[in-house]
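Lecture 7 notes: from sequence to structure.
We start with the chain below.
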Amino acid sequence: MKKLICAVALAAVLAGITSAGAQVYPSRPITLIVPFPPGGSTDLIGRIMAERLRAILGQPVIIENVGGAGGSIGVGRIARAAPDGYTLDIGQWDTHVGNGPMYPLTYDLQKDFEPIGLLSTNPQLILGRKTLPADDLNGLVGWLKANPDKGTYAVQTAAAHVTGVLLQRMTGTRFTLVPYRGAGPAMQDILAGHIDMLVTQAAVALPQVRAGTLKAYAVLSQKRSPVVPDIPTVDEGGVPGLYVDGWFGLFGPKGLPKDVVGKLNAAIVQALADPALRARFAELGQEVATREQQTPEGLAAFHKADVEKWWPIIKAANIKGE
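Predicted structure tokens for the same chain:
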């Protein structure tokens, strides 16, 4: 009788183990790392996606803001996370491209992450405080030349840092680069008039530009963006070639099982097809990624092309993180 009881107990334990191992993903909350403080464009897009993914996946998607070192600290959390699909990262140009040559990273941006899908692309904008005398990019350059070393420029991301250095070199101007932990704090300071200039993604800047509390001088691209067609390009503003594109993508740690990647990718594809989400993205200056770019392979190719374009430029300019 004792042998029978033990056998039944053992069978129950083994069944429990098998059942736990066979749980359908996701069976518990997912953490989405936003590698910047609250209030910036990455945080905003992350929260919009988290809400939609929660509805699709049937589990809470919890935002965790992990700022510092241009986003590299938060991304490091993903590199060290278990590849089980419960810790993900909303990555972008700064964290997954620009930081590579700029910071002494403890992980490999090309090898230690699993691409899940590209979410959107969006223009970077050169912005000025409302009371800045210049009304266009050419005027801004003129003001900087007339006031060497007096202008202040926020450096809250790798893209902002690279743009600031290139802007100085391409225009022969000098201004002070002021480090910030993220776009949220930088935006607060430029709105308060404590800093003169900011380069950030349209997602966080457009509400202030539309309200007239910030001046938008130019889009950092060759062509005007369809989401902000009234803002001229840097070429039109007199600084041709100063192109830096913004984007957002979903990444996980290397080694994510294919079925988990597939389920997450299907969820973001469904989310990005939702008319309400697309309308919200448009309000924030986001261009939803093409269907091909939304695939893991599409994000991998997109990321590889940006690395191959920008790493030689950043290394040649010897730009280092603050």
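Points to note: Strands lie at 30-34, 61-65, 87-92, 113-129, 152-155, 176-179, 197-201, 214-219, 245-253, 287-288. The mean pLDDT is 91.
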